[in-house]
From TrEMBL:
Bias-annotated ranges (Pro residues): 43-58
Gene this chain is encoded by: LOC111454281
Region annotation Disordered: where it falls in the sequence: 41-60
Any coiled-coil regions, as ranges: none
Protein name: Uncharacterized protein LOC111454281 isoform X1
Example of a GO biological process term: shoot system development
SUPFAM superfamilies recorded: Formin homology 2 domain (FH2 domain)
A Pfam family per the record: BPS1
Length: 343
C-alpha cells in the first residue's frame, strides 16, 4: 500500500524533492503539502515600484542657468539662432543702375553741378575754358564707367530706339571738336609766327596773322550753330530709367560748355578796335587773353604786346590739350554705347 502511494506521488513530484519525503520525522516536522502545493496557483509577480517623487517647482532661475552652462563650453559664447540674428540692411537696387548712393552716380551729379556753376562765372579767361573742358571730359569718364555695368547694358537694350538718336548727337559733338582741334592747332602756328613778327616788325607776317584771326573767328562761330542744334533726344513717354536721365544731363552740359568755348573764342577774335578811341570794343562772353592781343600798337607798347602774346600762346596750348582729351573721350563713350547695344 505504501509503495503504491509513493509511486503515485513520485509521478507528480520532481526528482529533486523526492528526497524530502524520506527524511526523518524530526527533520520534516511539517507536512509535505506545506512545502509543495501541486494544485496551487502560480505565485504572482511583485508589484512595480512606486514612481519617483516629482522635482520641486521652486527651483531658482540661476540654478538652471548654471546647470545648462556646465553641459556646454563655458569659454565660448552661445550660438545665436537664425531667428535671433539681426537683419542686414541693404539698399534696394534699381533695374537700370545701382542705387542713387552709388559712387559713380554721385560723382557724375557732382561734376554736372560744378559745370552749371562754372558757366555763371563773369571772369572768363583761358584757364576758365580749360577747366570747363577738363570737367566735361571727367563727366564723360564717369558716364563711360556707368555704361560698363551689366544693369546699364540691359537699359541700353530697352532704350535702343532712343539710344540711336543719342549716338547721332555724339557724332555731332565729335565732328565739331574734330574741326575745332584742327582750327586751334593751325591758329597756334600762326600765333607763334606773329610773335616773332612783332619783334622783327614784319608787317607781312602780321597781316597773315590778322587774316588767321578772322578765319578762326568765322569758323568757330559756325561751330556754335552746330552744337546748339544738338538737343537731348526725347525719351520714352513713361520712363523710369536712371541711365536715360544721366545721359540727358551729360549731353546738356556738353552742349553748354561747347557753346561757351566756341562762342567765346569766336567773339574775342572777331572784335575790332574803335577808330576814334583806339580801344577794343567790349565783347560779351569774350575770353580775356584773346581780346587783349591786338593787331596794331605803338613801338612803346612792344614789351606789353609781347607779354600778352606769350600769355595767349600758353592759353592756346592749354585749350588744345584739353580739346584733344575731350575729343578722344567722346569717341570712347560713343563706342561704349555701341558695344552695349551689340551685347
Amino acid at each position: 500500500m505504501l509503495q503504491s502511494v509513493q509511486q503515485q506521488t513520485a509521478k507528480h513530484i520532481p526528482r529533486g524533492l523526492l528526497s524530502l519525503l524520506y527524511l526523518p520525522h524530526e527533520w520534516a516536522p511539517l507536512p509535505i503539502s506545506h512545502y509543495i502545493k501541486l494544485d496551487a496557483n502560480p505565485i504572482p509577480s511583485p508589484p512595480p515600484p512606486p514612481p519617483p517623487p516629482p522635482p520641486p517647482q521652486n527651483i531658482p532661475t540661476k540654478m538652471v542657468g548654471v546647470f545648462r552652462r556646465s553641459l556646454s563650453f563655458p569659454n565660448k559664447a552661445p550660438a545665436i539662432s537664425r531667428q535671433t540674428k539681426p537683419r542686414i540692411s541693404r539698399h534696394l537696387r534699381s533695374l537700370s543702375l545701382p542705387c542713387r548712393s552709388h559712387p559713380l552716380i554721385s560723382s557724375l551729379k557732382e561734376e554736372i553741378a560744378n559745370l552749371k556753376s562754372w558757366s555763371s562765372t563773369d571772369h572768363r579767361d583761358a584757364v576758365w575754358l580749360c577747366r570747363g573742358l577738363t570737367t566735361v571730359k571727367l563727366v564723360h569718364d564717369y558716364l563711360d564707367d556707368i555704361l560698363q555695368l551689366p544693369q546699364s547694358r540691359e537699359s541700353i537694350c530697352r532704350l535702343s530706339k532712343w539710344v540711336e538718336n543719342v549716338l547721332e548727337d555724339f557724332l555731332c559733338f565729335i565732328d565739331a571738336y574734330g574741326i575745332f582741334q584742327s582750327l586751334i592747332l593751325g591758329f597756334r602756328e600762326e600765333h607763334v609766327a606773329a610773335h616773332v613778327a612783332i619783334r622783327r616788325k614784319d608787317k607781312t607776317k602780321l597781316d597773315l596773322y590778322t587774316k588767321a584771326r578772322k578765319r578762326m573767328a568765322k569758323e568757330t562761330t559756325q561751330l556754335v550753330s552746330v552744337v546748339r542744334g544738338v538737343k537731348a533726344a526725347e525719351g520714352t513717354a513713361v520712363s523710369e530709367e536712371e541711365l536715360e536721365a544721366a545721359i540727358k544731363d551729360v549731353m546738356e552740359v556738353t552742349g553748354m560748355v561747347s557753346v561757351a568755348v566756341f562762342e567765346g573764342i569766336g567773339a574775342s577774335l572777331g572784335s575790332r578796335r574803335n577808330r576814334w578811341t583806339g580801344k577794343t570794343k567790349k565783347v560779351e562772353n569774350g575770353i580775356l587773353e584773346f581780346m587783349e592781343v591786338s593787331q596794331n600798337g605803338d613801338v612803346d607798347e612792344l614789351t606789353v604786346r609781347i607779354e600778352k602774346m606769350r600769355d595767349l600762346e600758353e592759353g592756346i596750348r592749354c585749350i588744345e590739350s584739353s580739346t584733344e582729351k575731350l575729343f578722344r573721350r567722346l569717341i570712347d563713350t560713343r563706342v561704349s554705347i555701341l558695344n552695349a547695344i551689340s551685347h
